[in-house]
Amino acid sequence: MLSFRYLSILLIVTLLGVSPSRAQESSNHSVAKWAPLDIGFTADPGAQLGFDIDFSARFVNSSGHSRSIPGFWDGGMRFVLRLALPSEGIWTYETASSLAALDGLRGTVRVGPAALGQRGPIGLAPDDSRRFVYADGSRYFPLAFEIDWLFALDSENADGIPKSETLLKYVARHGFNQVVMNVFAYDVRWPRDPTLPKEFDYGKPRVFPFGGDNTKPDFSTLNVEYFQRFDRVLRELDRRGIAAHVMIYVWNKLVSWPEANSDADNRYFDYVVKRYQAFPNLIWDISKEATGYGHNDRAYITQRIERLRALDGHDRLVTVHDYGYCHRFPETVDFISVQNWHSETWHVMRQIRNDHPKMPIFNIEHGGYEEGPYHVFAGNYYRPEVNLERAYHIVFAGAYPTHYWQDTSWNVVIHDIERLPHSDRPKLDYYRHLAELVAKYDLTRLEPTTGKANSGFCLSNDTDLFVYLVPKENDVIIPRPPRDGFRQIQLTWFDPFTGTYDEEEPFDMVQWNRIRIPEPGTMRVMIMRMLP
To answer: Nearest CA to 321 among 362, 356, 276, 360?
Structure first.
């Protein structure tokens, strides 16, 4: 049974005795605010390729707000308008199409309150464009996890997505609220671990978004069934409150792509944008490592962004997995994506934030690839504790991190992590603790603050709350908070590896508050509140 949230309404348009417009006027549709709604139509595309038929509708509410939504062909005689409306009330629509049977059809959509737990699409905070918010106004702090081959886990299963559900349940339970993923990837260039079981290897998938397959592609058409099954993955991500950071292309995963800007290239790109823009959890990314590997130049990426924005009636956020591009053309994207492997992560991220002071900074790849039972890719940092430290440096620089575990990030995917021995599992508990710290002290509202200690890294409201990341090298930290109006300090110590808190008794401020670290040699977070 279809849930109310993903209500799919099939409107049969027939020319047998009832005009399309009259049949349409008798139909009323209902949906929750921000939830995707499919309005289906039946029409014969004739000799035309259904993908190439222009089809859209203009939706208008009683306040006069409007938006134009493109429709898409879903195979056979089925066309779909997939939309998600931003406000309650009655919306009316009228279609426009190059196919006469789909042109000039009218209808209404009654939009009710948002479903429980649905906070709407992710945007930029109106009061601070460096931060993300949901449409309901609540803050969104991205904590991302890379699963490039997520599309492949259940792509040959017509009945459901049990592997995807198992993996995403585990990911969500450990605090991650964004998955970085590809629409399609084929295989990696590096050799496989000789001990890798075949069941975990999703390289060279038999499925393909175009006609034919990756070895013998037919670019004259698209594979509708491939996209119908990809729908299920985005829905499951949304159901679990996880943003889908969708990379439309990838150049270094051996995909047979059509020639850039060809009819086939544009058909694929447009279809992805039309079909998925309504998902409220969607974030667009033009391509993984967009200007690398000699595939295309920056002008092509700019043209893709312009094409996407012209088609996307829902105005979802757009970025590019390429800091060189984002740095040179920040006006084309909504937030800056950074691929930074430098050892001095905090300093590099602070500089990037200073270079782009009005935009969120998202570190999409920091060179850390936590090791698993099977070796996949040789990054610079394998150990989970080092990966966590780099994530904290990114957060305390005022940016947002992404985590990679080698056995889910690329062609190797272990979907049921809990079946592994504890020693082989990734230390994702660390990130659940990080997510809980962010929520407990609302780190989304704190700013990186320099000069508030002679070592360590600080986030603060610059008044009475100072959160210090204390590196493992420290034995002592000497904070320098404001003194006016405050007489005492309340300290709470947080262990990033266990998620435990230890609160000390308040003590009087003095000129030099030399605070000893409870367990030198281990990274800690010190939460300092100023008391009158």
So the answer is: 362
Instruction: Please check whether residue 111 is in contact with residue 35, taking contact to mean a CB–CB distance below 8 angstroms.
Output: no
Q: Which two tokens stand for residue 215?
A: 């070895």
Checking if the pLDDT of 7 tops 50, the result is no
Indicate the DSSP class of residue 400. Answer: B
Q: What is the pLDDT of residues 438-464, one digit of tens each?
A: 999 999 999 998 878 889 999 999 999
What pLDDT, on the 0 to 100 scale, is given for residue 13? 36
φ and ψ of 156, to 5 deg: -105, 10
CATH of the domain at 515: 2.60.40
- Does any domain span residue 369? yes
The tens digit of pLDDT for each residue in 243-282 reads 999 999 999 999 999 999 999 999 999 999 999 999 999 9
Nearest to 286 by CA among 239, 278, 299: 299
The span from the CA of 65 to the CA of 312, in Å, is 16
DSSP string, 187-233: --SSPPPTT--GGGB--S-S--SEEE-SSSEEEEEE-HHHHHHHHHH
Domain hosting residue 191, numbered range: 134-441
**Residue 150 and residue 23 share a domain:** no
Q: What is the Cα–Cα distance from 32 to 86, expressed in whole angstroms? A: 9
